[in-house]
Amino acid sequence: MGNAIPTILVVGATGKFASLVVPELLGRGVTVRALVQGEARGAVARSLGVTQVAIGDLRNPDSLARAVQGVDGVFHIGPAFAPDEAALGVALVEAAERAGVRKLVFSSVIQPTNTRLRNHASKIPVEDALYSSGLEYTVLHPANFMQNIAMAWPAIIGHGGFGEPFPKEARIARVDYRDVAEVAAIALTGNRLAFATLELCAGMSSRIDVVEALSEELGRPVEALEPGFAEWAAAARLPYNGHQLQMLAKVHDHYRQHGLGGNSLSLKAALGRDPRSLRDYIRDLVQEKTSAGHDNRREVRHA
Q1: Model-level pTM?
Q2: Beta bridge partners of 277
């Protein structure tokens, strides 16, 4: 890359998923610049080991131009269910190209051409902008994030149940976002994944598989529940407005009717090892929660 020690901009570096990319980059000797909103998030970024902080907003062209100036690569994952997600991603691609950035890794979504799902289709303009740019791109198509299971930890511990608003037998493709972050870092610090578009999936599993793993790792039974969407969304305390919730409801309707297919071949090839399995993720989740002082006999605060 351009500099002896490359600088990589991580958009939203303190977010639940982009933050997982930061240690992968730091472990490869990269200087990480975080694009965050406000000084408070900047302090959080520095606590993660980030040495450069750009205070700005994807919706502010001037701050975006400053953020990409002088960096070698960019990691981008769009704000979930934002109505202008596509426009924000395209603006970032264009700003990166104008600034002479070499690489851009975009965390898109599995099956973006499933245009019945607006949050999938919103990734298409960003991918199109990359394919038509002069940037060295890598496009990642991750499946449903295993980390979403952790959102239900209070119910798992407090009520002995894990619910999703679709049938417990429905099999959906899942991936541990730590593996996605590792692939992103590989792409941003080398050339092996240049110009690749990769489906990232560890395998397909049902909620029955999830509760079986939870029960075994916790040493007590966990029931597979099927709440209605409104009940599930209220319990999860999702920070979405009505329109965003409608978009998410359509995703779960799709899972109800069709499940979600996915194949682990490209993730295994990109990593050079087997991806983390559902059982691996749940084992780590239980260890993390218990070692952090969570009492498995009572309900804990929502993460």
Answers
A1: 0.93
A2: none
